[in-house]
Amino acid sequence: MTGSVVEARTTTRSWISIPDDSHFSLANIPFGIISTVVRTNPRPAVAIGEYALDLEVFAARGLFSELSSIDRDLAVFFQPTLNAFAALGRSVHREVRKYLQNVFAEDTDYPHILKSNPSSRIATLIPLTEVTNHLPLQIGDYTDFYAGRNHAYNVGVLFRGPDHALQPNYNHLPVGYHGRASSVVVSGTPIRRPCGQILLDPVAEPKVPVFHPSKRLDIELELGAFVCKSNDIGDPIPVDQAEEHLFGFVLMNDWSARDIQAWEYVPLGPFNAKNFGTSISPWIVLADALKPFKCEGLENKTELLRYLQEGKVDNVYDIHLEVDLTAPTGTTTTITRTNSKNLLFSFPQMLAHHTVTGCPMRVGDLLGSGTISGTEPGTQGSMLEQCSNGKATIQLNDGEERTFLRDGDTVTIRGWSVNSDGSRVGFGGCVGSIFPAHFSKEI
Prior knowledge:
Layout: E1 31-35, E2 43-48, E3 51-54, H1 55-60, H2 83-86, H3 90-104, H4 118-124, E4 125-127, E5 132-134, E6 142-145, H5 149-160, E7 176-178, E8 184-186, E9 191-192, E10 195-198, E11 210-213, E12 217-218, E13 221-227, E14 246-253, E15 256-257, H6 258-264, E16 278-280, E17 285-286, H7 287-290, E18 294-296, E19 314-317, E20 320-326, E21 332-339, H8 347-355, E22 366-368, H9 383-386, E23 394-395, E24 401-402, E25 410-418, E26 424-435
Parallel strand pairs: 6-22, 8-16, 9-26
Antiparallel strand pairs: 1-2, 1-5, 2-3, 3-4, 6-7, 10-11, 12-15, 13-14, 13-22, 14-16, 14-17, 18-19, 20-21, 20-25, 23-24, 25-26
């Protein structure tokens, strides 16, 4: 039955035990980079239930034998990042995912690969509790967009009032800025509180900043998308072809120092307020895995220019999103529940806009959606919105209050979609803890 075409599995039942609430059901098969104490080299893997399937060992043992189309490219599973695999293109990603779904299916066509092969199961399946996750791709460039209109409006109201909350360009194009790829870190990496120039009294005159640790450290709940297909400089990516350039998706927390941002952002936008850390979840959920959850995003009544006209209504994803804040006491409070459908522009539109000037994208480039917020209390994707820029407080379950993050706080973002049979396609968690600033008044 060796071949290059693998039929999609209709079953979501697996011979491997998968908890009902697992983000890594048979319907998912997300890709990441892992290492272990026994084998410390970073290498590709997929997550299935409570296990990681070590793709380097899987390939080395000849377990891709029933997928002949990957034979010439097996070297991609011996790399420390997923860049080489991503560069093979969406059709290859699709075949490999379908093949692995078949291998793990209860009625697998290939029981000799793992189901009835105990030595290969022992060699390739590692409990997730025993793996260390790494950045899944080498990131060349990172661009953060501002496509969450509810967030943009809420923040605009705070600083400019409801009549001028959104800038005149907002509904016409996906607003964005270039972020810092070197400070994108994998979930679990601590985030050091940044220092910078801030105004201790923003209303005082004259306005004279001091050098100080940020007092208004915040989160931004986002989705991230990785590029898998490059374009030459000078050649835009048409919006109707942009999906083929997207590898998959991660959760993202684009940490923000609001007081540093308030002083620095005029006239060129965020700089030090955003460059100290961006956390992403370790497992990349392939675009094909999220295809069943495509849905309509926020309505845009503005007629877009032709290069942004996507020709489809269902162009974003129905992903449940939650944010937990765990205080140093250990008490956890869910401070946000929202949905990724709260976006005005899709990732293909973001990519089309990014390249309309001829900007070249490279495999591994990362796009951020912008902060995702709903319209109701408790659905906002930033603390800035929830506390009305410090005028209100966020109540925690242990009686504590927050306006912005304190040292020792841990933020966990989770996201998942649910199939009709109850199986989940999720991302796991995107976690970061706040460490105290390195601060000297002599600087």
